[in-house]
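Components:
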Amino acid sequence: MSRRDFHRATEAERRHDLIEATLDCISEAGLQGATVRQIATKAGVTAGLIRHYFASKDVILQEAYKVVIARLTEKAKNLDGTPEERLSSFIFVNLTEPVANSRSLSLWAAFISRVSVDPALATIHREGYLSFRQELEQLLADVLAAKGESVHPARNRALAIAVNGVLDGLWLEGCLAGELFEESELVSIAFSSIEALIGHPIKAPAPTDMDREYRDALRIHHR
Amino acid sequence: MSRRDFHRATEAERRHDLIEATLDCISEAGLQGATVRQIATKAGVTAGLIRHYFASKDVILQEAYKVVIARLTEKAKNLDGTPEERLSSFIFVNLTEPVANSRSLSLWAAFISRVSVDPALATIHREGYLSFRQELEQLLADVLAAKGESVHPARNRALAIAVNGVLDGLWLEGCLAGELFEESELVSIAFSSIEALIGHPIKAPAPTDMDREYRDALRIHHR
DNA sequence: CTCACAGTTATTCAAGCGTATAACAAAATC
DNA sequence: GATTTTGTTATACGCTTGAATAACTGTGAG
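Structure:
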């Protein structure tokens, strides 16, 4: 019985690997499948190591949730271009890979179902949610301002809620039943819906790689 | 040590009580909190009885999921009135109690997070989802037909996806952060959004109790 | 009133859980 | 190259889990 070989990793590496392993476990087998032993196996270490990096299993789950939220929102930050282009990219980014896929939904839903149970997760959730919606609210205000519209704060807030709702709902549909939709059907629907909501057409963004993909998408369905 | 008293219930009663207890456990403590012992305690029986009515824990969870889906969709069925009134009620019903509250979301999310893991749940989910969207698709077709519009099937399908997305997304926001919204803000937003999507105003439904409540809602926010 | 059935309880079991801790060894330090 | 440090393994513990089974008892049939 010889002891198994092991590699000493840096703290950053190890924590990253362990959190990735946690997310893999959750997406493959649900929260119930994310046991310390499963996580350790997936990360190629032994179970005890998890508690060397995380004070408890709850803590690693909290850290994992932060990563999930970051992945769902980071692509929609730091967009550039005109307000209209940024809105356009925002829509596209939120409804295509890697934000919209079934793994994202599995992870998101697993944590959401515990948000109302676990106060620590609730805090993490609320911060992420508010920051996302405020970002969208600012973006919409910029778009309307660029159109020369004076925007009443209450109307802008309602608009943000509506647009957020459309994006959330379409994201949900895409994740849940992606195979029922053609590639970019949802993006196309989102564009027409949001154009209807804000009362203005939305121009295509500047021609980056991403946006070329996006325009291809539109060409197919948006006619 | 005397044996505890017990009451012999009919099969229907017992199954109903056990499923309700299961839902209570899930909404209060997540899927992880729904152990056979917790469910039994909540239902006022002992753990062994669960396996007398359900072949395994998985089976009671599947039955519970069916109930959750039914609760989320049943209120939106068998609406009456003109197509426009039915659409109006449909929107209202889906964004107010008892469909939209944090308990509904807890239950929904808990099961959704297992849909991609458990094939039995996936089947139950898919059936519920398709039936809901087909209902909405028919409803929208009726509304547009009543407006004298000839409806291309593809356009109607896209419209149904969009409206479904708006409703899902707003439902989600209302459940997640209900306290951030005033009573009927979401209903009001849904009306303007969906009016924009279908290109027609939506009349208020016939004056039932429900609809009076609904109009009060609109009066506050929609003007 | 008796009896047999079946709904229910009580108890047990093996497996898996999160956690604690001691032994070990890879790498950094001197 | 010896020594220290600490990342990592290995093992054990108490507890909970889903499940199986035996014992009990409420209840309807006769």
